[in-house]
Amino acid sequence: MHSIDPFHVQLLAAVLFSLGIAVVLTRRNIFLVLMGVELMLNAVNLSFVGFSQQLPGAQSLWGQLTPLFTIAIAAAEACVGLAMVICITRGKDTVDSDAFAEMKE
Fold first, then answer.
1. Which of 4, 13, 26, 101 is 20 to 30 A off residue 93, Cα-Cα?
2. CB–CB of 50/10 below 8 Å?
3. pLDDT score at 82
4. Of 39, 49, 45, 41, which Cα lies nearest the Cα of 19?
C-alpha cells in the first residue's frame, strides 16, 4: 500500500483554506460566505487527518476523532448562520452581507 506524502496533504489543505479565505473576503452573498467558512473548516479537518497518519498506533486515533468534533461544530454554525439569514431575508428581502451591518438592537 502506498503512503501519501504529508507535504502534499498539507499543501492541499493550505490551498483549500486559502480558497475559503478568498471567498469569505470577496463575496457579499451570505450563502457563499458560509460556504467559504465550511471550506476552511474542511481544510483544517484534512490537515488533522493528514498529520494523524504520521503518528504511530493509538495516537493517530486522536487526529481522526478531532474532525468529528469540528464537523459537529460546523453543523451548529451552519444552523445558526442559516437562521440569521432567514431573519435577514424576511426583513430586508436580500442575502447581502451588508444587511448584517445595518442591524440595530
1. 26
2. yes
3. 85
4. 39
Cβ pair 96, 28 in contact under 8 A = yes
Residue 25: the pLDDT is: 94
Encode pLDDT of 60-70 as tens digits: 677 778 888 88
DSSP assignment, residue 96? B
Measured between alpha carbons, how far apart are the two ends of the chain, in Å?
Answer: 59
Q: What topology is assigned to 6-100 in CATH?
A: Helix Hairpins (1.10.287)
Which amino acid type is present at position 43?
A
Q: Is the pLDDT of residue 3 over 70?
A: yes
The maximal CA–CA distance of the chain, rounded, in angstroms, is 59
The C-alpha atoms of residue 26 and residue 97 are separated, in whole angstroms, by 11
